[in-house]
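Predicting structure from sequence has reshaped protein science. With that in mind, we have picked out one protein's residues alongside their backbone shape tokens:
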Amino acid sequence: MPLIVDVKWREQYASHALNRKLAGVTDPGIYWGFVLAPGGGLSVAVSEGADPDYPVSVAVVERDGYSLTVRLDTTETVVIASAGTWYVVLEANYIVGQDSAATLKAVATRLSNLKDGNSA
């Protein structure tokens, strides 16, 4: 599994408290890795970077009052729908009682937040 949300719902009590506690404290963004490179055709390869001492990408995503740490430990390919200007974004979800998930996707509009697969 290339994208991993470190704190998950199956650790319900600790995860809920930690995710809430760090929201607004740890700045969202990429802390390490998530290196982009042409992936061939209309795709982009997103990798963990070249540092052998730290071969994992790390990012923090804030969503609905939760702060989530997302790791990437292998190369993932993002397919671009058509020619033009596209932005590769990392989206993560955390809802108590459901599986946590993260995905890399290409969107045509530069935005700070995406919800429910929409670009709004």
User: Anything to note?
Assistant: The longest helix spans residues 12-22. Residues 3-107 form one domain. Strands lie at 3-5, 29-32, 35-38, 43-47, 57-63, 66-72, 76-79, 87-93, 101-107.
